[in-house]
Amino acid sequence: MALAVAPDLIALYRGALQQAVDVAGGPGGWLEQEITREYQQIRQAAYDDPFKLGDKFASGILRPVSNDDFDAEAAYLIQFARQRSAFVRAQLNSGLILQ
């Protein structure tokens, strides 16, 4: 299927993706630091909350979660932050994202 997309819009889109990759950084980058900062800021309150809810199984239904579940989700987000920039950069370089 051929796409009729204005080349200037494609360039703008690709530039925005590249800028997002640059800002987020990889391991130890801004995105990981921000997730870690926010996690540390709310961790004790989350631990103290006996009624905390989460969507542990990505089902769309909130259920009671444990402190271990909370920590596991924070670890998942940190891992995502470490890997995402490299993934998006590879997509940009591969040509899978519109040229």
Please characterize this protein's 3D structure:
This protein has 99 residues and is mainly α. It has one domain (9-94). Helices cover 66% and strands 4% of the residues. It has three helices and two strands, in the order H-H-E-E-H. It has helices at 7-24, 30-48, 67-94; strands at residues 53-54, 63-64. It has a two-stranded antiparallel sheet with strand order 1-2. Strand 1 (53-54) and strand 2 form a beta hairpin. Helix 1 packs across helix 3 and helix 2 (30-48) runs antiparallel to helix 3. The longest helix is centred in the C-terminal third of the chain and has 28 residues, at 67-94. The two termini are 15 Å apart. The mean pLDDT is 92.
Short description:
This protein has 99 residues and is mainly alpha-helical.
Topology (elements, then pairings):
Layout: H1 7-24, H2 30-48, E1 53-54, E2 63-64, H3 67-94
Antiparallel strand pairs: 1-2
Helix pairs in contact: 1-3, 2-3
The major β-sheet equals: 2 strands, antiparallel
Structural class: mainly alpha
Q: How is the largest sheet built, in terms of strand order?
A: 1-2
Instruction: Tell me the radius of gyration.
Output: 18 Å
Q: Fraction of residues in helices? A: 55-70%
Number of strands: 2
What sequence of helices (H) and strands (E) makes up the elements? HHEEH
Rounded mean pLDDT is: 92
Kindly report how far apart the N and C termini lie: 15 Å
Name a few traits of the molecule.
99 residues, mainly alpha, 3 helices, two-stranded antiparallel ribbon, elongated
